[in-house]
Amino acid sequence: MRKEHPSTHLLKKLIITSTGPTSIEKASGQTVKLDCQYTLAAEDSGPLDIEWSLQPSDNQKKEEVVIVYSGDRAFEHYYEPLKGRVHFNSPDPKNGDASMNIMGLKATDTGTYQCKVKKVPGISSRKFLLTVMVRPSKPRCYAEGQTHAGKDMVLRCSSVEGTQPLQYIWERTTGNKLLPPLAVLDPVGGTMSLRNATEVASGTYKCIAKNRVGTEECLVEVNITQPPNTAGVIAGVVICILLVLILLALLLFCCCRARNKKKYEKEIAYEIREDVPPPKSRVSTARSFTSVGSQRSSLGSMSPSNLHEYTKPQYDKIPSEEYVRPPSHAPIPPPSRMAGPNLSRMGAIPVMVPAQNRDGSIV
Q1: How far is Cα 116 from Cα 182, in angstroms, rounded to an integer?
Q2: pTM of the entire structure?
Q3: Out of 86, 190, 275, 322, which could bridge 157 as a Cys pair, Cβ 3.0 to 4.6 Å?
Q4: Is residue 295 in some structural domain?
Q5: Phi-psi group of 69: left, alpha or beta (phi > 0 → left; psi -120 to 50 → alpha; rest → beta)
């Protein structure tokens, strides 16, 4: 009996012949082909089954079937996240090509995929590690710090999206295209520090954000100027404040002077009014003469009884201290003496008045 060689025995079994890389990195949005070529042995006579599955990343998740070929028919709607984006590479996988294509890759498509070909009694499988990377998004470039000569400033560059590790590279696009000698770069954080910046550092700088699947870039303009004259600015501000204070003082002085002048004019006017008595009107003079005449007429028609009432002094009336008799330059006329007959005629009663000496004794 002929003994078969082990290698000859292996050739008679179903095997996957693909020899490409099993670890693949692709960018999001691209298409990937997971190569799974196979050959059948003469003794493999059972039905052909091809199954692609997504292996769990840990023991808590189950294996997910992605696509199946069985009974001469392809079934491509097993896994909902890949629905419409996964297909067999060959329209007839039974011809030895069980490769699978995934289109429009997403970061969530990252995982371990297994190709399993089975035709009883033969069976074989192959695994692929697919990593879907997101290319860097458009970075944002900006400068922080003062743009005056002799000061420190920082140029920053950052991408919101992008699979790590991300690397940032700074370049100068103007002038001699050399970075300032005192520039400090941080390729991971995306910063470039300019210490003791000078006007020579002015220009346009470009930041490039990159990872293994793509690059993006942005520009920032740097303009270093001389610092302003701080002493001159302070002196100007002080002078302006002093001028404002002087103007306010002059305004207050003018207002106070005008107020005092107005008050002085009012006091002079009051004094003039008090010193000059108002002139008597003709009407009041006529009334006074009329009053005097009426008093004389009434005195002539008085009876003795009325005369007694008229001559009776009124002691109950106290003269006011505030009353001041107006000065008169005319001499006071002596009291008139009426003759006895005239008094008798008027109805008066004669009264004897004892004579008195100068010392007041009765004679």
Answers
A1: 59
A2: 0.53
A3: 190
A4: no
A5: beta
Domain match, 113 and 41 both? yes
Q: In this predicted model, what pLDDT tens digit does every residue of 119-163 receive, in sequence order? A: 988 899 999 999 999 999 999 999 998 888 888 999 999 999 999
Distances (CA, A) of 33 to 22, 89, 199, 240: 11, 8, 54, 78
Give residue 87's identity as a one-letter amino acid code: H
Tokens (6 digits) for 235: 């002196």
**Are 124 and 144 members of one domain?**
no
Q: How many residues does the chain have?
A: 363
% of the chain residues with pLDDT over 70: 69
Cα 349–chain centre separation: 112
* Domain C-terminal end among 222, 239, 273: 222
**Cβ neighbours for 63, distance < 8 A, ≥ 6 positions apart:** 53, 54, 55, 56
| Total number of domains constituting the chain | 2
In a domain, 274, yes or no: no
Give dist(CA 171, CA 205) in Å, integer. 6
Residue 332's pLDDT is 53
